[in-house]
Amino acid sequence: MERRQAPYDDFIMDHIRNARNYRVLENANREKQGSNPLCGDVITVQLHIARGRVEEAAFQCECCGISMASASMMTDWVKGREVAEVRQYARALSGYLSNRSGTTSRQGDPMERALFATVRDFPARAGCAVLPWATLESALA
Question: What is this structure's pTM?
């Protein structure tokens, strides 16, 4: 009997099954809602920014697993980082995922590898992977 390979890697599946920071952020001082009209995903990103850094991040969504996994990874990644770094990285990653170029400054990062593999194998999911990052960019604008 031939074993069928899972559509998404273990890293993505872990973030789908065990989404981090999926909650309301009570002390949020930035909030933005984004949507992907092609698939119906809607996400709200909430941030608490202090002293030029993202101190906390959370999200809520009515979305597919790829958007949820991407948001989960994103909210873990941004914590403690400077706003300028987060803004620059979100813009770059969104562009890379949209174009599926697979080339970023952080080659080898498990989050990037998982997201790139997903959009490479499922090009229609690129918008789902980008949605949280684009919404983050808007929240920081």
Answer: 0.88
